[in-house]
Amino acid sequence: RLLDGYFNQWARTPVQPTLNFFAVINTLGALQCVLTALALLSIKTGNRTANRFLGLTLLAQALLIFVFVMYDTRLFLSVPQLYLALDPVVLAVTPLFFLYVKALTNRDFRFRKRDWLHFLLFFLIVLLLLPDLFRSAEAKLQDYLSELQSTELTIADTIAHAITNIQVLTYFSAAFIVLRKAVKNQPHLGESLPVKIKWLRTLIIALISVSVMSAIFDFTPVARESGFNDYVTPFFLTLIV
Fold first, then answer.
1. Distance CA 14, CA 43 (A)
2. How far apart are CA 217 and CA 13, in angstroms?
3. How far lies 135's CA from each of 4, 22, 44, 131, 139, in Å?
C-alpha cells in the first residue's frame, strides 16, 4: 500500500524490486565472504590476529556487496528502513584490510587503543545517520524514490562519494606501502613466504583497480544514471573473493 501511494507521483520508478543475473552472482559472493570469514575466525593456529582481521574484512565486505545488491535490485522498495543504514560499512572495510596487512607482515603486531582512530570516520558517519534509523518507513521510502528520480549528484552526495573514494584509495595504497616496506626491511619475509607476498601484492593491486573503476563510475553521469556501478563493482569484488 505504501508503494502504491507513490506510483502516480513516481511513474518512471518500478514499484517492485527486480532481480537479475549480477544480483544473484553478487549475493553468492556475499555468502562466500561470510563462509570464508567464519572459517578464518575459527582457526586456532597460525597468525590468529591476521586471520581475525581478514575475517572481519570479509564480513564487512559481505555487507558492502549486499548494499550494492540492494541498490541494484531496488530492494529498498520493500525494506526502506534499511535505506542508508548499511552504507557506512564501506568505511570499515579498508581500515580492517589495512590492519590485516600489518598483522600479516608483522607477527608482533597487536591492536592498540590508538588503532581505533582508523575507524573514526566510520563511527562518525554512523553517528550522523543514527537519527535516520528512527524515521518512518514512509519518509525513508520517499527519500529513496527521490534519489531514483534524481539525474544529478547533490553537493552532499558529491562530498560523500569523494570522501569515501579518497578513504578507500588511501587505505589500499597504504596497505601496499606497508607490504613493500615489510619486504624491504625483512628480506627473509619475501624469501620464506614468496607465494603469500605475491598473492597479497596482487590482491592489493586488484582492489585498487576496482576502487579506481568505482570512483570513475561514481562521477560519470551515464554510469551513475544507469546504476552501472551497483552491479559491476560488487561483481568484481565477488571475483576477487
1. 45
2. 22
3. 20, 31, 43, 7, 7
**What is the chain's Cα-based Rg?**
20
| Alpha-helical regions (H) of the chain | 4-7, 21-42, 48-73, 90-105, 120-129, 137-149, 155-185, 187-192, 194-218, 221-226, 228-240
When comparing pLDDT for 18 and 100, which is higher?
Answer: 100
Which amino acid, residue 63? L
Q: Choose among 108, 111, 101, 109: nearest CA to 196.
A: 101
Instruction: Give the per-residue pLDDT at 3.
Output: 42
Q: Are 40 and 101 in contact (CB under 8 A)?
A: no
Residue 20: φ, ψ to 5°: -140, 175
Q: What is the 3-state secondary structure (H, E, C) of 146-188?
A: HHHHCCCCCHHHHHHHHHHHHHHHHHHHHHHHHHHHHHHHCHH
Q: How far is residue 188 from each of residues 39, 109, 184, 194, measured CA to CA in Å?
A: 29, 18, 9, 10
Other beta carbons within 10 Å of 224: 19
CA 119 to chain centre: 14
154-198 residue pLDDT tens: 788 888 889 999 999 999 999 999 998 887 776 655 455 556 677
- CA–CA distance, 111 with 120 (Å, rounded to integer): 15
Q: Rounded distance, CA 93 to CA 21, Å?
A: 25
Backbone angles phi, psi at 227, to 5 degrees: 70, 20
Output DSSP code: residue 111.
-
Query: What is the pLDDT of the chain when averaged over all its residues?
Result: 86
C-alpha cell at 130: 543514527
- Cβ atoms of 156 and 129 closer than 8 Å: no
Amino acid at 31: L
